[in-house]
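REQUEST ID: PR-0412
SUBMITTED BY: lab tech R.K.
PRIORITY: routine
TASK: structure prediction, single protein chain
INPUT:
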Amino acid sequence: MTSESTAFTARSVAEKYDRYLRPLLFEPFAEDIVSRIKGKNYHDVLEIACGTGSVTRHLMKALPANTKLVATDSHPEMIKVAADSMPGETINWQTADAQQLIFPDENFDLVVCQFGLMFIPDKMKAASEVFRVLRKGGKFLFNTWDKIENNGVVYVGNQIICSYFPENPPTFYRVPFSLPQPDQIETLLVASGFKNIKVHAVEKEGVSPSAKDAAIGIIEGNPIYGRIVEKDPKLVDIIRDAVEQKIAEAYGDRPLKSPLKAWVFEASK
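STATUS: complete
OUTPUT:
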């Protein structure tokens, strides 16, 4: 994978991702995914690709007080933003590669991952690692985005961004939306040893205080920002303004409301 598709290494990018994209794109699905474990008793929980902590926050509220929660991501700056936003919480933050988890066999009752599988180069290896660290009867709960066309504000924003790169458009937004077919993921899970697989289509509405906030997140809250600056720093303001105008026309302003769609998977060891 290119650095463009995976790098959230700049603190400023991670902070803008958290401020502008997390509430718009990730909070609605974080609430949904955690609602599926409420009332259930898990002693040891692992979160993969925790990002800036959207799901982590909800896990802390939903899990029993004696639950041990380990939250991991491959990008230290994302973890730093998450940890700084939850001071005093008893979370074990770890930098970890999902393809080679740093935990013993059969160590967790539950593994959760929100919108992370698409970024992992060897998805079979990652699924096998989750299977390895789960105890017998443990659950793997995760989600993936549906087609980008069904996630309005990102689709419109990406079209505008790419129009400024006619010969070599940025590839970042292809990656999050690269696993829109549930049967492909079911096949992966079965091959990794999972059973009792359930798939749910989930549609939500993403809300941003303004089209401007959403545009800042779309442009400056992910690695596309670096690609734009590399071409011409002056383009950042130009493209951001163009995105703001178009998404406001399509989804309103103050607040902006965009349709979103994802798939949720549950599987047991």
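NOTES: Strands lie at 44-48, 68-73, 91-95, 108-114, 134-145, 195-208, 256-268.
REVIEWED BY: pending
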